[in-house]
Amino acid sequence: MQSLSNVLASSSLPTSLQNVLTTTTQTCIDISSTLKKGSLAGILGMAGNENVQGEEQKKLDVISNDMLKDALLALPEVRAIASEEEDDIVPAHTDGEYLIAFDPLDGSSNIDINSMVGTIFSIYSKKGDKPATEADFLISGNQQVAAGYVLYGPSTMLVFSTGNGVAMYTLDVDKSEFILTQASVTLAKEAQEFALNMSNQRFWSDNMQNYARDLIAGKEGPRQKNFNMRWVAAMVGDVHRILCRGGIFIYPWDKKDPTKPGKLRLMYEANPMAMLIEQSGGKAYTHTHRILDIQPTGIHQRVAVILGAANEVDKCLSY
Ligand code: AHG
Ligand code: MN
Ligand code: MN
Ligand code: MN
């Protein structure tokens, strides 16, 4: 049973990147301990502010954001951070080698019902020695040097990739360290399950509505196959299920707000999850483009997301 620190130390990753990964994941262990205290610590409920996304912040959105922000800004390797919960990028060290984008707490509607939440992170390397600007972050997900998430479930799990496959770790709560529990994740090409918030069906494009109709039609429909449906309401939980059991996750464009191309955020959600899905053999697209090829135009940009089993993503896009 190898610990994360042993795996990193025996890897060929630069020490600087190892330090960023160690700090990020150690902070997630602290977030995990905080979450475990629940309402006893007075950390549930609303924070009373709205974030730049136009969402009401929960106390834990703010607490987990501040924990990651403080830990990463103190690290000499960090040039700057960007977060779902910060209006602008936050510069750190002008000679720092890495930019980190994160969703400090994914699935915040689950907080108050004691259900699945997570932290999602994405790391880019940055050459030179200049104060960071937002423009530094506007590079495609292809350039991520590492991406991953920590899932705060019945056990706390870390899943990440540095571009050489996907590994899963489980938190040993007694030792406060992540232990490697699956060295390599392979995603099946076909799907039996889909994750899609069906309550939005009437707002989707006709093509997406037709695709969903055919999924639900099951054996008797054109797909001639039964599909099961699951929706965790935390992308981190849905993607984790797909990495464990296969399937497809979709958050499509909808016409509720035609100015938004999707709900999920490219830099904090779509790009890191797309890297994990592709690194395990799956595909990750918007309705038209491979997610990792998108040239971002702003740090808080939203995109439609269709990711998971390669053949099922192709099928969806064929509509
Ligand atoms: P966040 O809590 O970071 O704002 O993200 C919530 C996202 C994502 O995790 C999830 O897949 C989706 O919102 C859930 O949306 P619904 O409200 O449509 O269930
Ligand atoms: Mn949010
Ligand atoms: Mn999120
Ligand atoms: Mn969030």
TrEMBL record:
It is found in: Cytoplasm. Residues 15-182 form the Fructose-1-6-bisphosphatase class I N-terminal domain. Its EC number is 3.1.3.11. Substrate binds at residues 106-109, 197, 263. This is Fructose-1,6-bisphosphatase class 1. Its main location: cytoplasm. Mg(2+) 2 binds at residues 103, 106, 269. GO terms for molecular function: fructose 1,6-bisphosphate 1-phosphatase activity. Mg(2+) 1 binds at residues 84, 103, 105. Belongs to the FBPase class 1 family. Homotetramer. It comes from Marinomonas phaeophyticola. The keyword Metal-binding applies.
